[in-house]
Design a protein that fits this description.
Elements (H helix, E strand, L loop, with lengths): L6 E7 L15 E2 L2 E2 H8 L5 E8 L2 H9 L3 E4 L6 H13 L5 E6 L7 H11 L4 E5 L2 E9 L3 H4 L9 H4 L7 E3 L17
Parallel strand pairs: 1-4, 1-6, 4-5, 7-9
Antiparallel strand pairs: 2-3, 6-8, 7-8
């Protein structure tokens, strides 16, 4: 596969988990496995040439490496945009055609959801949506990378997701798009 036409995958797994309590939510068990492992596994797909996890703890880093991912570390507690920017700047060196962004705390996504998003997007930006609300996972073509690099603070790419045309938002069930913020979020 031509590296310039490839898709790179970035899993953001460096959150502080403040609302989850003292435990690292990314290591909480979901269906018998650590939560973040589900997102790491989703990046092992045909067409994804480079897989990177941005993490803030050594335990999550070990989990990502065990899934065959490259790992970059950021200090815990920094703004959400720091993880995205660090990952994007690292991945841009390989000149991918597009970037798939996933969150480490969305353990209910399935491989076929990612496959559908990759096929649905074509050469355009695309994301998932639930009830009209744009959400990760999201796919950004290289033409959006400069815009991604302007993000600041704790909002991540949310503001850019709203710029993705409604026709480029893939409807997925709310249960699949649940992110986990509190221990109660683990119960259906």
């Amino acid at each position: 596969m031509n590296a310039e036409r490839a898709t790179a995958a970035l899993v953001l797994a460096a959150g502080a988990s403040r609302r989850f309590g003292s435990a690292d939510k990314l290591l909480a068990l979901v269906q018998g496995r650590p939560m973040a492992e589900a997102s790491f596994r989703l990046t092992d797909r045909p067409g994804i040439a480079q897989r990177l996890a941005v993490v803030s703890t050594s335990q999550v880093a070990d989990l990502a490496r065990a899934q065959g991912m490259e790992v970059l570390a950021v200090p815990e507690g920094g703004p959400q945009s720091d993880s995205l920017l660090l990952g994007l700047r690292h991945l841009r060196q390989a000149r991918p055609a597009r970037l798939l962004v996933l969150l480490g705390d969305m353990p209910f996504l399935r491989g076929d959801d990612i496959d559908r998003l990759l096929a649905f997007a074509g050469d355009d930006a695309a994301c998932a949506q639930s009830a009209g609300q744009p959400m990760p996972p999201a796919l950004f073509p290289a033409t959006w990378f400069d815009r991604l690099e302007t993000l600041q603070g704790d909002r991540g790419a949310g503001s850019l997701l709203r710029d993705i045309p409604k026709a480029n938002r893939l409807d997925l069930p709310p249960a699949v798009l649940r992110d986990i913020d509190r221990p109660d979020d683990l119960t259906p």
